Amino acid sequence: MQPDPSQAQTPDRAIVTCRGVSKIYGDGAIEVPAVNGLDLDIAAGDFATLSGPSGSGKTTLLNMIGGLDRPTSGTVVVDGEELGGLDTAHLAELRLHKIGFVFQAYNLIPVLSALENIEFVLQLLGVGAKERRDRAAAALADVGLAGMEDRRPSHLSGGQQQRVAVARALVARPAIVLADEPTANLDSKTADDLVTLMAELNARSGTTFLIGTHDGRVIERARRRLEMVDGRITADTTGSLADAAQ
Fold first, then answer.
1. Is the dihedral of CA 65, 67, 73, 78 positive or negative?
2. Which of 55, 167, 201, 236 is most buried, by the most CB atoms less than 10 A from its CB?
3. Pair 219, 213: CB distance under 8 Å
């Protein structure tokens, strides 16, 4: 899967900028801050993890960056677009063109084949049938699933389904891929293979990854490790732990 030259990324360019971002749940009488005055920059080409205890705000932050939820206050900018100024339709367009999602539960369409699940994104983008099929087939090959184009999700293992989800997230050549606990439903070997795959795709194409995870195997492979507690970033470390151990 080759990067789109029109979206060429440089290491110093911020793909995500959060400033003073807060998300408060409640009805006024009882309010619970899930994210609390957070500042964050994610640079083009980052391979970053976001970790922390349950309730620390990881998923809420990922959802706000992905335009699935709106902050109570503060600003979120993705690839130059401030999300707070976008209506629902324009947010959907931004997600389609600029953000790839990989979810814990795979979220594949069960009645579609692996190839059709990936093609569906390109169909929404208006890509012609031949190019759509060629790009989807190339995306499957990139995640090691060449020859499985016609299999439906029920005939794929959990790891294979997650690989299809990664291919689907990448096929539109997004500015950033957001992954929320992508290894949570996988056995150790399959999880290791998936992390290796994402790291290789990041190194090969410069695709930016931000991965919310509790999985130490994912965290040790990241070049940047963010930690959250009580809705704030409490640590921001660079340099792969796996490389340092070698």
1. positive
2. 167
3. yes
